[in-house]
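Components:
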Amino acid sequence: MPDPGIILAILVATLRAATPLVLAGLGELVTERSGVLNLGIEGMMLVGAAVGFMATVVTGNPALGMIAAMLAGAAMALVFGFLTLSLLANQVATGLALTIFGIGLSALLGVDYQSHPITGLATVISPHLSEASPAVQQLLLIDPLVMVAVVAPFLVHWYLTRARGGLVLRAVGESHDVAFALGYPVIRIRYFAVMFGGAMSGLAGSYLSLAYTPMWTENMVAGRGWIALALVVFSTWKPIMLALGALLFGFVTIAQFQVEALGIDIPPQLLATLPYLATIAVLVLISRDTTRTKLNAPAALGRSFHPST
Amino acid sequence: MAFVRGQQRSGLHIMCGVHVSPRVGQPPRLELRGISKTYGTTRANIGIDLVVQPGEIHALLGENGAGKSTLVKIIYGLVKPDEGEILWEGAPVSIADPNAARAMGVGMVFQHFSLFEALTVAENIALGLGNKQHPRALAPRIREVAVRYGLVVDPQRHIHHLSVGERQRVEIVRCLLAEPTLLILDEPTSVLTPQEAEGLFVMLRRLAAEGCSVLYISHKLEEIKALCEAATVLRAGRLSGHCDPRQESPAAMAELMIGATLPQCGRTTAATTGASCLVVNDLSLPSDEPFGTDLHRVSLDVRAGEIVGIAGVSGNGQKELLAALSGERLAPRADSVVIVGQPAGRVGAAGRRRIGLAFVPEERLGRGAVAEMSLAENALLTGASSAIVRHGFIRFPALRTFARSILAEFRVLATGIEATAGSLSGGNMQKFIIGREIGAAPRVLLAAHPTWGVDIGAALAIRQQIIALSDSGVGVLIVSEDLAELFEICDRIAVLSGGRLSTPKPPATTTLEEVGLLMGGQRQAAVREHAHAA
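Structure:
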């Protein structure tokens, strides 16, 4: 029987590892439910991480850092929205370009902030963290952003299924022509959805640079944006499923470190693939009912809308 | 009259039973003066006038491309006119968007339904109403209107579970909940069985008697004669005339529509039938689409020189049957589909063409032809015979000769064989595709909705080509929703309903009513049960 302290540590670490995936994934889920496919999550997260870190260093206030990160993510998304929604550029190509742009921009912005020390979010909130007992220390690591990631899936689920705004959003993603014929401002709704997605990606990025590993290093998002994107598809566009998928991914990531710590002789490269394999395996099993997947998928996903056609 | 109009906002029930007829001195509900609209080089509407009186069922008549849709979109605020004036209840208005139109009292039932498949009936209706009603709060109102007008719909069902007729009911209920004073219906009966259409007419007459004006778009003359009190006829974007359909003969109205007398078409000689050239044996095939219809034990035999028609409302397995026959989907067994004596169930589309099958799909652009490619290139797609392609190389002179012969023989109006397929009108494109398929000298022709969306003149030419083809000994299978057409040219008619095919009967031994009842199939029974339960 393992020590309860270790179990608590694993649980908290799982939550923390899942947080950026949940935040970015929910943003993308809302974007996709409105019918827009934004492949730029990775880039938006990176810019969010860099800007959030810089703002925190400059102001000394991580809350302002998070707000700056959300604004930066939304600004990136606004560029994407302008290109794809107003100028009708191809969404896939534009999204990929946004990721490449985000990698470069964040590296450029953060060049003077490499190896700049800041205090982690949990320590900022409870300054006596290091003096607390190990169990309390673990609980204090559940910072406000982790709590947001726990609550947000339910809020998004409620909004999409119960609120009128969510109904209109789903309708726009289902058929923009019909929504337009009924008099809904398709483009404006999609701008809002895209910018919400950008803000959530920015927030997810700032979680990485302010709380998860409190520092800025180039390309520190390390593919989490792509995992979030995959989670959206495999969760069949359902917020709570998405959160469960992110938790699973987080759990296997943490479990892999524990296995390594126990000294079991498995090549580390193989272990590193485990979170991806486990998440994909479980989500594929969940979404193997193709009829349901097709039903939940926003029918207008990735298609440009122009009122005259 | 002022009393009635004053009460309209407070609910439909108050108007019940009040008969309203147009009176002198009262402004028309809607008046259009000199409406013009140009898209690029196409003049869709040129100086059109239209007057709809309160409580009137007014027909808007015209062929495809005559400008009916554009005009209606202008009234509904989807398109802005370049010139002209719109008067609502006598006052000039400018309709910025559909919300403004709905606020004014205009309701619209679209030809291609404006419903969201993945949402429920109540959600769809909530989306269609401007006021912020919650779907659940709407359910009792939906039931109330449904009962009043005999439009049975269950608010909690998802749209993709509904038949086409039921979807139309949802559309109409959605409009009625907004309490319109002008209801526009765009070709509403094209998706209905004759019995369902009759039910719709009863509902519309009742609505008109309560003071709601109806603008009814159609090209079915008999229907308009039975239903409408006034008609505005369009031809090639221009006003062709106003008339009273109750006084005019269908032939006279057709003349207004096409600008010439309508020639007759039909089989002059009784077809002599030969050996079986397309046989379907007990074919069952589950649909591969989330909203599709499974095929249940379909059996069919088309003989050489015979035209067999498959009637039915689309969504009853037509798509699945056509895919299984054309080879886009393989059958479970080789002998499920036999073409000219060869078991072809496991043979793909190209293989079946080699055996002698030609296929005219429903979608002209996208499946029948590639919009961005020239007519010559499109002719190559299925017409690649050994004379045109040798050792993998295209012989362009032969290809151009083939494409030109299609244009000439089938009277396709195009700027030339280098014109892109997308630049042709629906009718001309269809003539081209049928010409290409016939040009491949098939043994069996499979045609889906051959004259759908095609104007009267082109439809007639297409039917004559099909008849000529069958006279030359080719077996023809037509899948269509147009019962009049099937009765006109087919030797035998079967009905596809809920994925099951009825036994084909010669038109002489069956009636429109019988076919209509078969088309309704179990659906009608289910609706009746539903009505009793409610």
